[in-house]
Amino acid sequence: MTMNNILSSLERARTVMIAGHTRPDGDCVGACMGLWHYIHDNYPHIRADVRLEPVSDSYKVVSCTELIINTYDDDTVYDLFIALDASDMGRLAGAVKYFETAGHRICIDHHISNPSYADENHILPDASSTCEVLADLMDMEKISREAATALYMGIICDTGVFKYSNTSHHTMDVAGKLMEKGIPYSDLIDGVFYRKTFMQNQLLGHCLTDAKLTLGGKVIVSVVDRTVLDSFHAAHADLEGVIDQLRVTEGIEVAVLASETDQVGYKFSLRSNHYVDVSSIAAEFGGGGHVRAAGFSAAGDPWENYRKVENMIKEQLEACTME
Predict the structure, then answer these.
(1) Which of 117, 136, 144, 307 stands the most exposed, by the fewest C-beta atoms within 10 Å?
(2) Secondary element (H or E) of residue 48
(3) pLDDT by residue (tens digit) across 141-162?
(4) Side-chain half-sphere CA neighbours of 22 within 13 A
(5) C-alpha distances in Å from residue 260, one per residue of 7, 60, 253
(6) Rounded mean pLDDT of 78-96?
(7) pTM of the predicted model, to two decimals?
(8) Mutual orientation of helices 26-42 and 145-159 as an angle, nearest 10°?
């Protein structure tokens, strides 16, 4: 698929919906807003709506995020639906009803677990992020500073500012071209990835203090229930970055963060450093992601579910030792 393929669908459409996955992260928000700006800048005759659940304040450095629609209570039927960074149709959450009624559906993603659920699918598992995939589809000369800012934000979020193993030579090339658009890349990295409120730092401190080591210090796990979030007057989005800090603990192979959600059960975030394929573990619970970064949601006692996760981690580590 190329941007021309997408735009051929756009040319036949009057209304377009852009949506991503539930609890949108930086790559999801960056991809949705990057595509929105690209369409808005170059094809002003097309009406495009972005629908996402409420996004973290740190992602609002991207312009026009105030135009994101956070509700799903109307019955609008769109000519075209473009799903971004959503590994399966269920991850579209409230937006799925618009997906089902749209005249045509396109999915652009980089999750290896994506089953190609749309009418047209462009899925590149080797890409660092959906924003990298989008940047390759677009005509770089037609990417504005605002669109470049959104795409760059998504890339730094999904690569951990270019330190994760999903960062490639091509990733750096794409990022460099986006930087040439005059984006405030240094401030962007600080504001999106590193800067935290005092409350968020306190919450991070709690998660680290409450964390436990298992499997001989190879795994670190922290569980955050609703009472903890309420005690800090925190939202789920305030946990952004906690799993990454757990992952860089000395001697750790796998980091696990289980956090109680507003829905049923807990969200499990999994990160590994070298050997464990956490996407295969997440898949056992109906989740997905990447080899080194994945997640799932599960009802029931979080520690009981963690013990199942731990057993699968143990099996993989033992298999590595045997080899």
Answers:
(1) 307
(2) strand 47-51
(3) 999 999 999 999 999 999 989 9
(4) 18
(5) 40, 25, 24
(6) 94
(7) 0.82
(8) 160
Q: Is the dihedral of CA 250, 255, 261, 266 positive or negative?
A: negative
Q: Rounded to an integer, what distance in angstroms lies between the CA atom of residue 111 and that of residue 128?
A: 10
Q: How far, in Å, CA of 10 to CA of 25, rounded?
A: 26
Q: Tell me how many degrees the CA angle 159-31-189 measures, rounded to the nearest 5.
A: 45
Residue with tokens 């699968």: 312
Phi, psi (deg, nearest 5) at residue 111: -85, 130
Q: Which residue has the tokens 């590595």?
A: 320
Is pLDDT above 80 for 83?
Answer: yes
Is it the case that residue 299 has pLDDT exceeding 80? Answer: yes
Please report the pLDDT score of residue 323 as a whole number: 55
- What Å distances lie between residue 237 and 31, 53, 56, 167, 241, CA to CA? 18, 11, 6, 24, 9
Residue-level length of the chain? 323
**According to the 3-state scheme, what is the secondary structure of 275-311?**
CCCHHHHHHHCCCEECCCEEEEEECCCHHHHHHHHHH
**Which residue bears the tokens 């598992």?**
125
Other Cβ atoms within 10 Å of 200 Cβ, number? 19
Question: Residue ranges of the alpha helices (H) in the chain?
Answer: 3-11, 26-42, 96-101, 130-137, 145-159, 169-179, 185-189, 198-210, 226-231, 242-247, 278-284, 302-322
pLDDT of residue 320: 82
What tokens were used for 181? Answer: 């658009």
231 near 199, Cβ under 8 Å? no
